[in-house]
Amino acid sequence: MTEPGHHVENVATDSHIAVQAGTVHNVTVYERDPQDSPETTFRKGVSFLKGRMSGPARRLISDAMVGYATNEVYFYWLLAMVSRRTRHELTKDETGRLRDRHATMQLRGEDPWREGVRIIDRLLESAGKAEDDIRVVVKDLDALREPQRSLILEHLELYLDGPIEDHLWHRALSQAKADQMAERREDRIWKFFHPLPARPLLREPQPPDTPATCWARAVISAVVLVAATANLGYLILQSGRALLLAAYVLGLAGASVGVRDTARWRHRVVRRRAKDREYRVRRTEIERVAVGRRTKKAPKRKTKVERGNFVKRAEHRIDHYFAKYVPPGMDRDQWEAETEGIRRSLRDELTEVYGETRVGVEKIAWLIRHRAGKAATRRRKGTLWSYRRELATPLGTKVRATLGLLTLAGAGGWAAAGIVPVEPLPAIGTILLLLIAGWFCARTWLRIVLERRRYAADRAESLSAYRGDLEALARWRARLEDKPDDEEMAAWLDCDRKVLLEEALRHYRLTMSGVIAHAFIEAPARGSERARLRGGPWRYKKYQLLVFLVTEEGVRQFTVTLDFLKGTFHDRQRLNYRFEAVASVSVKQSDDGGRDFQLALVNGNEISVEVNSGVEELQQGERPGAVSEVSLDAAGLPHTLHVLEAIAAEGKKWVDQRELRTGNLSAALDDPE
Fold first, then answer.
1. Which of 75, 194, 383, 447 is the most exposed place for a label (fewest CB within 10 A)?
2. Which whole-number Å values give the CA distances from 6 to 365, 504, 578, in the listed order?
3. Rounded CA gap, 568 and 562, in Å?
4. What gap in Å lies between CA 175 and CA 191, rounded to an integer?
């Protein structure tokens, strides 16, 4: 049942869309507290209305009118009553309230809000009237101040019909084109999807590994060593040989210098080797790059923390940002291979510091980006592996250590050997005790000294990185200061909808008044990132937008993918079908709360779109299901279901009775009885 030149196709294969975990901004603009004053309730209702959630907006503003009645309240109440729905979607009670609006509204004084109420009132009365009857009200609308004028153009889009509809549509479209990329949209909109960055945590280094047994051996061996050394000196002094005494003193001096500088030397060697192991690049990876092959991801080592979702998401972010920040003139594969160890080390650090906290990877993405950019900058400056140069042992240290130990061996050995003929038994016993104690003392105290120096170096390195992270956090927070609010996000999305609607009308050569009804569905595109305010609807980086145009001949469906960050449309699909081709329209709700819009055609094809994934990610205090409700309202699903369900139930008869129903509604609004 399609029009010539068109065919019906099943688009469901691309419609069941999975989304990534989202960001929830802890802002309370969409949360209602029973203790709120009527004015606060009204302001929250206005926020819902500006966020394109007319359902909760009507309830809140109506509740606020009981105790807070101003011209501004009446203005927003009228907008909320008619926003994003046609006359046929009003309940009997709502029709009566609009009919009796003059008795309900007690306007006071003269201000732009009262003038806005007058314009809305005249627009509601002008619906369906002839061209000549609406020129004056259109002229007065054009002269109305902002923001009242823009709000009227935005929210009366569906409610009005007839010639007035075309006049308002052209003005609304012009406003949408002017505002679509306004307020530096492309520079700011991406910030909405970034959570409040988490403060960096200081990585505490592993404490020195010196158990009590080690300290006991060190102390005992030191005491024995000192006693044996003193006893050897006493024997030499008692012998009265000045040369032996001088050699003994020289040996002590050599030991002091040699041991001190040997410890420094050893510390640098051990730390450099540890860094090399930490940042080790597997030779096979470099060889693959050298022969021009695609570098494969290196095998991941197991960490102390159980590998789970945090580790996987951290790895994904690390790989993403290191692939994004590639030094100029360097091949990406080579860069990935060269930084394989650095990325592995960063993964282990984040897992150790944040893996068991409630801080998600999204909140430290800025930190990963900072570290990746810093690595690229250091590589460009040639300082990426500067630790090897910084930990290289100075020649002076090596010389002093070598000379000191040689002096100890030469002078000390000569002194010890010289005293043996004088005091054989005491000297030999003392020398053996000195050698044994010296061996144990050197091993244990070297371990203690190296561990203490390792800890001091690790802590200094952690503090340096922490200070750099704090500076990066300050820069990142400053960059996010102009993050758009949800009202701006909704306004930009509404502009995109109008521009898309104009493209569909132009393609099918239709006018707004020539369309019986139109409806939208806003669904997340596959794999799109998402974010929302606390209590508000999900906003996505990419949308799948469906436009339904109901005409005398049937339904025109226009489907595109919206890149919300750039405000551009892609992957256009067009589908036409007559009223008789619609078999059923429904919303399927899964056990987890997900909602799928399903439109079945009589030929067996089905159009299925996942409007809501069901993964609400509730914050403390949020009611289950509330996020889904406002998200579906913001997506335009209630109005779309109203239109398409009517077509599925009545077919062409729904169109034939349209004028009769519209006339009855107009009479109901005008007739007080």
1. 383
2. 47, 15, 11
3. 6
4. 24
